[in-house]
Write a structure and sequence with these properties.
alpha/beta; 9-stranded mixed sheet; two-stranded antiparallel ribbon; 17 strands
C-alpha cells in the first residue's frame, strides 16, 4: 500500500450512525461526552479486566450532568440497537456509588430495556475508594464498605449541592436526560418507564416515588437505605460496641456457632420447613445468646464469654439512645449471623479500623471526625445528642421517608419492595416498618385492623399500588443460605401493563450459589403472608408450599422522630 493510499484511508471520516449523531444533541446542563456503537457482544468496564459478555448490539452514551456549578454527575445510557422492547429502565447502585454500575446496564439491555445508570455525582468529589469503592472492584462488596485505601476522606464536606445530587437530584436528572437521549435515538418515545435498585438503589427508588412521582410507571426497591441518616448510625454503633474492649469481639467461628444455635432453636416455628437452614420469619425467634455462655470449662470459640453475649444482645436490640432508650434504628434479625466478611455483617464491621460507611459523618463534621482528639469523632459519637446534628444537616436531602405516595398512586404507579430476612447490613425490619407506615397512611379515616389482617382497609388500598416481599434467608440484596435468586422486574412490568398484581414470586437457591444446578425453590409471599409447608412432598420444591396469612408479629419501630 502506498503512503498516499494510507493517508487517504486514515483521513476518511467515520460513517455517521444514529448513535454517533447523539453527540450533537443539545440538552440543558448536559455534555454528551461519547456516543459509540458496540456490536462486539461484550464490554469491559473501565478499570476491569473481565468483560461482560452476551450483550446485544447497543449504543453506549456517556454524559456529564452539571445542574450546579459544583455538580459533576456522570451517567451512561445503553440503547439496544435491534432488540429494544420499547421500555426505559433506570437503575441504581450501592454504597456511596461514585462509579457506574455496569452490571445493571448489561442486565437491562439483555432484557431489552434502554437502560441508564449514574455515579450519583460522588465520583470526583474527593470520595476515596475507602468510601466509594472503585470501578475495578464494584463486584466485591468488601470494597464498597472499605475499599482500597486506609485514609479517611472528607468526602462531600462543604459541598451541599453534591450531597443533594447524591441524595436525590442525580437519579432524577439521569432519568430525565436518559429518556430524552433514548427518545432521540429511537425517534419515538418509550412506552413505559421502570426503575430497579437495591440498597442505595432502593433509596433512589423510594426517593423517585416520593419526590419525582411522574418519572416512573413501576419502581422496584430492594433493601432500601431510605432512612439514610439513621441506617448509617447502625455500623457506627456496632463498631463502638465491639471496640469497647477487646473482649467484645466475636470470632468468625463463633458466628457460625450462633447461627446454628439460632436455627436449631427457631426453625419451623415461622412457616417454612423444619429442615430449612434459614428462618422464614425471624420475628418469631427470641433466641437469647446467653444460652451459649461458656460454662463447665468450655472456652471460645465453642461458646461465648459474658462480654460476647452482651455484644450479640446489643446487636439484636438495635441502635438505642443511651439516655432515653428511644430506638434510633431497629436491630438485626436472628438468623443473619455469618462468618463471611462479604456478607457485610458483624464480622466485617468489627474488623475495620473505623466504622463501615462512616463517610456520611465526615460530610457533617469534616476531617476532624477521623481524629480521636476531636470533640466529635467515630469513637465518641454521642447517640443522644449528635444524631440531631446529623439530621439537621442531611435528613431533608437524604432521607426518603415520606409515606405520602398519593401522586405516584394516582398516575398509576406501582411500587414493588423486597428485603432479605437475613440481611446483615440493613436490618430487615426497616422495610416492614416503611410498608406498615404506608398502610397506616392509606388507612386514615378507616377503623384500623392489624396490618397482618386481610380485613385492613389500609392494607387493601396500599396493596393496590405497593407490595412488599420478604425473602427468607437472603443476605443484603443477594446471597445467603435461602433461595436468593429471583426475577421481580417481570412481575412488576406485568402489574403495570396488565393489571396483574403479584401474589408470589418464585425464588431459587443454586448449589454453591452458582447456576445451573438447583438446590431448592421457594415461593416469596406478598407481605404479610408467609410460605408454609403443605406437609408432603419435597421441601426443595416451591409447589409444596402455600402462602398463608401470618399471625400478628411484634415490629420494632424507631421513635417517631427517627422513623418510620
Amino acid at each position: 500500500m502506498s503512503l498516499f493510499a494510507f493517508v487517504a484511508i486514515a483521513s476518511t471520516p467515520a460513517v455517521a450512525t444514529p448513535c454517533t449523531n447523539l453527540l450533537s444533541l443539545n440538552l440543558p446542563d448536559t455534555t454528551i461526552t461519547s456516543a459509540t456503537d458496540n456490536t462486539t457482544g461484550s464490554f469491559t468496564p473501565p478499570g476491569s479486566s473481565t468483560p461482560i459478555t452476551g450483550l446485544p448490539a447497543f449504543c453506549r452514551v456517556t454524559a456529564t450532568l452539571i445542574p450546579t456549578s459544583d455538580s459533576n454527575i456522570k451517567v451512561e445510557i445503553w440503547l439496544p440497537e435491534t432488540t429494544w422492547n420499547g421500555r426505559f429502565l433506570g437503575t441504581g447502585g450501592g454504597g456511596f456509588q461514585g462509579v457506574i454500575t455496569y452490571s445493571e446496564l448489561a442486565s437491562g439491555i439483555q432484557a431489552g430495556f434502554a437502560a441508564t445508570n449514574s455515579d450519583l455525582g460522588t465520583g470526583s468529589s474527593g470520595c476515596s475508594p475507602l468510601y466509594c469503592g472503585s470501578a475495578g472492584n464494584m463486584g466485591n462488596p468488601l470494597a464498597i464498605a472499605f475499599g482500597d485505601s486506609a485514609s479517611p476522606t472528607t468526602g462531600l464536606f462543604g459541598h451541599p449541592e453534591r450531597i443533594k445530587d447524591f441524595g436525590q437530584r442525580a437519579i432524577h436528572l439521569m432519568t430525565v436526560r436518559g429518556k430524552q437521549i433514548a427518545d432521540a435515538f429511537y425517534q419515538k418515545s418509550h412506552t413505559k418507564a421502570y426503575f430497579a435498585g437495591c440498597s442505595t438503589g432502593g433509596q433512589n427508588a423510594l426517593m423517585e416515588a416520593q419526590r419525582f412521582p411522574n418519572d416512573y410507571d413501576g419502581i422496584l426497591a430492594g433493601a432500601a437505605a431510605f432512612n439514610r441518616t439513621h441506617i448509617h448510625m447502625v455500623p457506627l454503633a456496632v463498631w463502638q460496641d465491639t471496640h469497647a474492649s477487646a473482649s467484645r469481639f466475636i470470632l468468625p467461628a463463633q458466628m457460625t456457632l450462633i447461627n446454628k444455635a439460632v436455627i436449631a432453636a427457631c426453625v419451623g416455628q415461622d412457616g417454612g420447613a423444619s429442615t430449612d437452614q434459614f428462618l422464614t420469619d425471624p420475628r418469631d425467634c427470641h433466641f437469647d445468646p446467653k444460652a451459649l455462655l461458656c460454662t463447665g470449662g468450655k472456652v471460645p470459640p465453642a461458646c461465648l464469654t459474658a462480654d460476647q453475649v452482651t455484644t450479640m444482645q446489643k446487636y439484636y436490640a438495635g441502635t438505642i439512645d443511651p439516655v432515653n432508650g428511644q430506638v434510633i434504628y431497629p436491630g438485626y434479625e436472628r438468623g443473619n449471623e455469618t462468618d463471611n466478611v462479604l456478607g457485610l455483617g458483624l464480622v466485617l464491621m468489627e474488623s475495620l479500623p473505623e466504622p463501615a460507611f462512616d463517610g456520611l459523618f465526615y460530610w457533617v463534621f469534616g476531617p476532624s471526625f477521623g481524629h480521636p482528639a476531636s470533640a466529635v469523632n467515630f469513637a465518641n459519637f454521642d447517640f443522644h445528642r449528635a444524631v440531631d446534628t446529623v439530621d439537621d444537616q442531611l435528613a431533608e436531602v437524604l432521607n426518603a421517608d415520606s409515606t405520602d405516595l398519593g401522586e405516584f398512586r394516582e398516575h398509576g404507579g406501582k411500587l414493588l419492595m423486597y428485603h432479605g430476612w437475613a440481611d446483615p447490613l440493613i436490618p430487615s425490619q426497616s422495610s416492614i416498618n416503611y410498608f406498615n407506615a404506608l398502610v397506616g397512611n392509606n388507612g386514615r379515616g378507616f377503623q384500623q385492623a392489624s396490618v397482618n389482617s386481610n380485613a385492613s382497609p389500609g392494607l387493601e388500598r396500599t396493596q393496590s399500588f405497593a407490595r412488599l416481599f420478604m425473602v427468607p434467608g437472603m443476605y443484603h440484596c443477594s446471597g445467603g443460605p435461602g433461595p436468593n435468586v429471583f426475577d421481580a422486574l417481570t412481575p412488576l412490568v406485568n402489574w403495570v401493563e396488565n393489571g396483574v398484581a403479584p401474589e408470589t414470586i418464585t425464588a431459587t437457591k443454586f448449589v454453591a450459589d452458582t447456576p445451573p444446578a438447583v438446590q431448592m425453590t421457594r415461593p416469596l409471599c406478598v407481605y404479610p403472608k408467609v410460605a408454609k409447608y403443605n406437609g408432603s412432598g419435597s421441601t426443595s420444591v416451591a409447589a409444596n408450599f402455600t402462602c398463608v396469612t401470618d399471625e400478628p408479629d411484634f415490629n420494632q419501630t424507631p421513635a417517631p422522630k427517627y422513623g418510620p
